[in-house]
Design brief:
alpha+beta; single chain; globular; seven-stranded antiparallel beta sheet; binds 2-oxoglutaric acid
Length: 288
Amino acid sequence: MSAAAAPQPANASATVLSRRIGDDYRISAADKAAYHAQGYIRFLNVLTEAEVAAIEQVYDRFATGQIPGMGRDLCDMSGTYKDEFKNFALINAMLPRRYMPSLQGNIYERLSQSIARQLYGEDMDYDYDQFLSKKPGKARAAFAMHQDMGYWPVNTPDTRTATCSLAITESVRANGCIAFVPGSQKAAKLVPHRPKGKGDRSESHTLEIDLPPDTPIEHVEVPRGSITVHDEWVVHGSGGNTSDKWRKTYVIAYRSRATIAYERSIGFTHSHNDTVNWKTALDLYQTA
Ligand SMILES: O=C(O)CCC(=O)C(=O)O
């Protein structure tokens, strides 16, 4: 006689979706697999309106140039270090937490750390943060296509990275949302990067790569309060802002404790004021 089938709980076959539980953002197995397959993922509506509004008040002090003493950490990623702040199109405030320590421990930090640790393990810690703001009506406010590894020391042994981007405003094609080449992270290899414009890195921090014209690109549109995450090898960038509204993004990247310790020991802090004493993608490109 066969045993009677055990009664199934009502939701036994229901798919478990990614969801927020307090300061934790629980990633579903399907989303985790999609992240590793594509090199990026989006999580919709993670922060509440009140949480984003509170962060935006601080954010706007950087985006309007009210924080003194940043040197090259306040620059235009679509221009040069010589540009005057009033003429910036893509305002990049590096390391806002360094210049305003009260940002430490905010709700986005707590949620994004939970995301990074689920994707890569409990040794993932805060590495750097960044505010990226595109002014309205600035077609030139594009972030050139690149791999994040293109900007970092190339000899770091453990490259694992989860870079989280919180949409402080909605992020859509018209205001220059982030765009990825799906699966381009799979080779885990640097493609040649060159300095943007006239080719002098002392004039501009920005690097760029050439993509074949038929390269598939996914533009990832998200509402305010959503988070996208990408890895260190995926090719990505973003277009200009042709809309009449700002695009504001709050980036926090997580890397392993060992990697952070190693990179600090060679003097790399992600500040544009660092003196570069390490091998970069540019050395590879110039000697290629
Ligand atoms: O959000 C963007 O426009 C690009 C940001 C980016 O390239 C990055 O965070 O690595």
